[in-house]
Amino acid sequence: MPPTLKTKSFFASFFPKKEKSFFLGRKKQRTFALCSIAFVLCAITSPAFAYRIYVSNEKDNTVTVLDGATLNIVKTVDVGARPRGIVLSGDGKSLFICTSDADHIEVLDLASLKVIRVLPSNPDPEYMALSHDGKTLYVANEDNSQVSVLDVARGRIISEIPVGVEPEGMAVSPDDKTVICTSETTSMAHFIDVATHNVVASVLVGTRPRFAVFTKHGAQVWVSSEVAGTVAVIDAATHKIIKTLHFTLPEVPTAAIQAVGINLTSDGKYAFIDLGPANRVAVVDPKTFEIEKYLLVGQRVWHNAFSPDEKLLYTANGLSNDMSVIDVSGLSVTQSVPVGQSPWGVVVGP
Amino acid sequence: MLVCSQARAADEIGIVYLGLDRAHHIASTDLDAPPAYPGLKGAQLAVADTNTTGRFTNQHFALEVINPPDPQTLEQDFTKALAAGKRLFVANLPAELLLKLADTKGAPGAVILDATTPDDRLRQADCRANMLHILPSRAMLADALMQYLVAKSWTRIMLLVGRDPADTLYADAIRHAAEKFQITIRADRPWRFNPAAQQADTGHYQVNDEVVKATQGVTYDILVVADEADNFGDELAYRTDTPRPVAGTQGLVPTAWSPAMDEYASTQLQTRFHREEGRWMTAEDYGGWLAVRAIGEAATRAATADPQKIIAYLHGPDFSVSGYKGPELTFRPWDGQLRQPILLSTDRSLVSISPQPGFLHQTNDLDSLGQDQPESTCHLP
Predict the structure, then answer these.
(1) How many cross-chain Cβ pairs, A to B, lie less than 8 Å apart?
(2) Shortest CB distance from B328 goes to which of A142, A201, A228?
(3) Which residues in chain A have their CB less than 8 angstroms from residue B324's CB?
(4) How far is B355 from chain A (nearest CA, A)?
(5) ipTM higher than 0.90?
(6) Could you tell me which chain A residue has the CA closest to the CA of B302?
(7) How far is B87 from chain A (nearest CA, A)?
(8) Separation of alpha carbons B248 and B129, rounded Å
(9) Structural element, H or E, at residue A259
(10) pLDDT of A105-157, one tens digit each?
(11) B176-to-A218, A279, B183, B220, B342 alpha-carbon distances in Å
């Protein structure tokens, strides 16, 4: 077990180039000797970094901060009303939080764990995506049928892009040229050209699309549909659906299978798809589109996030008020950790 | 899918709303102001929602409202609309009038989405091939309630029936559902007391006495009331001889929609409606909204503005629409009824949603509510 590190080395350790800070804790050195050796070995073969996990809790207006190594709660931070979408800032020093009912975005400083800044967002921000230079936030305004483009440094909305009804899912392409917005009632994935802020294509997908994610090099966009319970794999260049994934679980009513959060491993081996009230995460092979396994997690699993080394996956479970931990290589659920009320989003950061 | 089509003029899709501008019914309480244009307001919101989608599919939806005070004018306006080539109708009308319209010359080529009636006969002996039903029938509502009573093991009911014809139909549905789910009706009594009495000074004493008398000498778990017009149903709870909860048309109500509903992202719809209208969405509004959404969804998915193709898609196997109640909603091909979960709700709290867990059906659990295909007397081609 790595000891809790001081803030400075925290940030350093999060970024691979300054990987260094694995020293044994002083007090419990002996007790943890075995595990520590195992950990160090593991760290040598494939580096792991000290990190924290951040979970937004929609119903009690908090963000739970957990230590990545111990899974202990470091702090429960009070934030504005109805925190949902959360995204790490470009420099990794802060967390952007969509406080939907407060109609703005709060910036949580990860060193002090205090909200240090409030950004405008237009009404009902639900989810957002950040450009890779960290300068621009694209915010879905669920009640307003638009995407607000926010200049982070200036704290100003520089553009508003009309999209379908109830926009939610947001994603930025790896080359930063395209932004995807899914609109739930319109059932479309809108492709927005970053240069002109025009919607250049709108792809009709299954009912209530909630989430969009690009594959590593941007060739595909995966879009989950909550009510249809499907995932559309869209060719990013032609805007054509090349595959629609369906999920069937004999023991779960069809209506409970609602696809929401998606994450793909960067080695292209697995896609993990949260199935909402089916209480399962589907494991899919992105090459063959075969469903390899369903993992039983907490209730109404919403969003998920990898640990920095992608060995673990954390899921926010909205109804059971906990976070499940999935061992990626073993494809098994290893732990569940209580967090706040109605966990919605989960992000891993320093 | 569509790329940069803004240059081309949008395809126009006309929907005609048919309603009667009736005098407001005065309910037994003044607390709830009669909603303005119930049904129509839902339809208008759905047009706005659907047009937001239409921006990306190059479709534009327009709602023509025919809402005269009398049935004769309505029939004439309907005939004119048919002659003008209109084929997509959303109706908020009583059963008798609906049947007249459906049987009008030229109407077979159109579709009438019955947005609000609960009448079972429109899904049974009087069903029509050119009609689709959006809100649940009384049989579906009654089944939804009885399933919940079975789940709670509250299997002995007392039934109290108002004097309106609609109350008789509601009571019939409860009786049929009780038999289906093996619920015992321990007493089945009419309610004959003057509904105005509550408003008289000291009226509450009289009402209390009457309710005690009406509910005496019966051993039961829950009082089920049939009072669709809200004449007396709200004056039963806390006044019964033995302390028993109230369900049916008041108390715990099986309904298509309730302002208390906040699951399955319905908060978004509730908020949108409240922002536009300054009041909460009723079941009637929900019917209007869902009817227009059904047409919009068919036009979007079939990628057409041609009414005949839209009608074909509505009746086809691929159609489904999202109704903020969980599963995708589809039409029963044998009677044109929209399958849907039914809320069990009080004024301020969503209590449950039927079908209850465990009430399974061989093809679709939603078909455990209402007349299933084998027992249906309607067999549309």
Answers:
(1) 69
(2) A228
(3) none
(4) 12
(5) no
(6) A204
(7) 24
(8) 31
(9) none
(10) 999 999 999 999 999 999 999 999 999 999 999 999 988 899 999 999 999 99
(11) 58, 37, 10, 18, 18
- B 278-297 residues with CB below 8 A of A? none
Q: What is the pLDDT of residues B10-39, one digit of tens each?
A: 899 999 999 999 866 666 667 777 888 999
Do residues B280 and B272 make contact, with C-beta atoms less than 8 angstroms apart?
no
Pull the structure tokens for residue A208: 């209530």
Using CA atoms, how far apart are residues B326 and B66, in angstroms rounded to an integer? 32
Question: Measured at the alpha carbon of residue A164, what is the angle toward residues B318 and B13, in degrees to the nearest 5?
Answer: 60
Please give the single-letter amino acid code of residue B356: Q
Are A200 and B300 an interchain contact pair (Cβ–Cβ within 8 Å)?
no
pLDDT of residue A8: 38
CA B22 to chain centre: 18
- At what angle are helices B307-315 and B283-302 packed, to 10 degrees? 110
Q: How far apart are CA A165 and CA A181, in angstroms?
A: 11
Q: Calculate how close chain A gets to B3, using CA atoms only, in Å.
A: 5
Cα–Cα distance between A138 and B239 in angstroms, integer?
57
CB A278 within 8 Å of CB A257: yes
pLDDT at B195: 63
How far is C-alpha B298 from the geometric centre of its chain's CA atoms?
Answer: 20
CA separation for the pair A344, B51 (Å, rounded): 30
Chain B residues near residue A201 by CB distance under 8 angstroms: 1-3
Specify the pairing of strand B131-133 against strand A209-214.
unpaired
Among the partner residues B53, B271, B322, nearest to A143 by beta-carbon distance: B271
> Rounded CA gap, B274 and A270, in Å?
43
Asked if A58 and A97 touch (Cβ cutoff 8 Å), the reply is no
CA distance linking residue B116 with residue B219, whole number of Å:
36
Which residue has 């593991």 as its token pair?
A: A42
Residue the block writes with tokens 């009902």: A124
- Answer whether A240 touches B (CB < 8 Å): yes
Q: Are B343 and B256 in contact (CB under 8 A)?
A: yes
* Other CB atoms within 10 A of residue A331 CB: 16
**Cβ atoms of B334 and B363 closer than 8 Å:** no
| pLDDT tens by residue, B168-189 | 999 999 999 999 999 999 999 9
Q: What DSSP state is assigned to residue A257?
A: -
Whether the Cβ atoms of residue A190 and residue A163 lie closer than 8 Å to each other: yes
Other CB atoms closer than 10 Å to residue A238's CB: what's the count? 10
Cβ density class A256-293: b for 16+ within 10 Å, e for less: bbbbbbbbbbeeeebbbbbbbbbbbbbbbebeeeebee
Residues near B325 by beta carbon (within 8 Å), at least 6 away in sequence: B261, B263, B264, B266, B340, B341, B343, B353
B330 — contact with chain A (CB < 8 Å)? Answer: no
The separation between CA B130 and the C-alpha centre of its own chain, rounded to angstroms, equals 18
Q: Residue B246 pLDDT > 50, yes or no?
A: yes
Sheet with A146-151, side-by-side order of all strands: A125-130, A136-141, A146-151, A156-162
